């Protein structure tokens, strides 16, 4: 999925550090985005190639481990620097395998760093076992378990759950809605639960 310039600029101006993964460098260089770190295994590009014209002030971090994705490496890099939050764009759409793996990655690291993935139609993040947030009536909320999530209880949604389970591929909580303006509450006992704030 695309990420509009409005979302991109908002996140950009809030960001202390901008990390670009190697596969996105050509796309980023067409914008006015400041690059602080270029990270990846560089199996498809060479940062020194003249066509990239990368500023010497950009930190180049080579991460050759082929058992991890570039997104996983970038998140671990931020964790090593004690960052508490990361906003991720251009991680959904195009190849479905990449999108699926990137969403799973949110669950892998959410206890160590607050990761949110953005595109024009959704904000995606893993939630702690007790979650509360203000929403407007009609906002679309989807809950997806990574594996099995047990003991889910919700309030403030059109279709609430009471000590119920979600499990792939048996049952998910797709396309629920906020019933009234106010705080929705979600709790669960075990597992990893992904929340998607969606719009059509």
Describe the model.
The chain is an alpha+beta fold and 200 residues long. It has 2 domains: 5-120, Thiamin pyrophosphokinase, catalytic domain (Rossmann fold, 3-Layer(aba) Sandwich), CATH 3.40.50; 128-198, Jelly Rolls, CATH 2.60.120. The chain is 20% helix and 34% strand. The chain is built from 4 helices and 13 strands. The protein has helices at 5-14, 25-28, 70-80, 96-109; strands at residues 19-21, 37-40, 59-62, 85-89, 114-119, 122-127, 130-135, 140-145, 148-155, 164-167, 173-177, 182-187, 193-198. A 6-stranded mixed sheet has the order 4-5-6-13-8-11, sandwiched between helices. A 4-stranded antiparallel sheet has the order 7-12-9-10, with no helix packed on it. Helix 4 links the parallel strand 4 and strand 5 (114-119). The chain is globular, with a radius of gyration of 18 Å.
- CATH C-level class of the largest domain: Alpha Beta
Proportion in helices: 10-25%
The pLDDT mean sits at 89
Named at the architecture level, the CATH assignment of the largest domain is 3-Layer(aba) Sandwich
Radius of gyration: 18 Å
Fraction of residues in β-strands: 25-35%
Category from helices, strands and their pairing:
alpha+beta
Outline of the structure:
20% of the residues lie in helices and 34% in strands.
Notable characteristics:
alpha+beta; 6-stranded mixed β-sheet; Jelly Rolls; 2 domains; Rossmann fold
């Amino acid at each position: 999925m695309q990420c509009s310039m409005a979302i991109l600029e908002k996140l950009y101006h809030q960001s202390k550090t901008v990390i670009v993964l190697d596969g996105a460098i050509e796309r980023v260089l067409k914008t006015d985005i400041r690059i602080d770190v270029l990270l990846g295994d560089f199996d498809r590009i060479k940062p020194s190639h003249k066509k990239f014209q990368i500023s010497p002030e950009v930190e180049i971090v080579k991460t050759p481990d082929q058992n991890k994705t570039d997104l996983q490496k970038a998140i671990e890099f931020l964790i090593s620097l004690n960052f508490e939050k990361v906003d991720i764009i251009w991680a959904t759409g195009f190849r479905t395998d990449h999108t699926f793996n990137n969403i799973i990655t949110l669950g892998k690291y959410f206890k160590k760093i607050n990761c949110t993935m953005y595109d024009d139609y959704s904000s995606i993040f893993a939630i702690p076992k007790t979650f509360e947030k203000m929403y407007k009536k009609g906002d679309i909320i989807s809950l997806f378990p990574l594996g099995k999530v047990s003991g889910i209880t919700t309030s403030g949604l059109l279709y609430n759950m009471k000590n119920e389970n979600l499990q792939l591929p048996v049952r998910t909580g797709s396309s629920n809605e906020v019933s009234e303006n106010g705080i929705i509450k979600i709790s669960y006992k075990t597992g990893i639960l992904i929340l998607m704030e969606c719009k059509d």
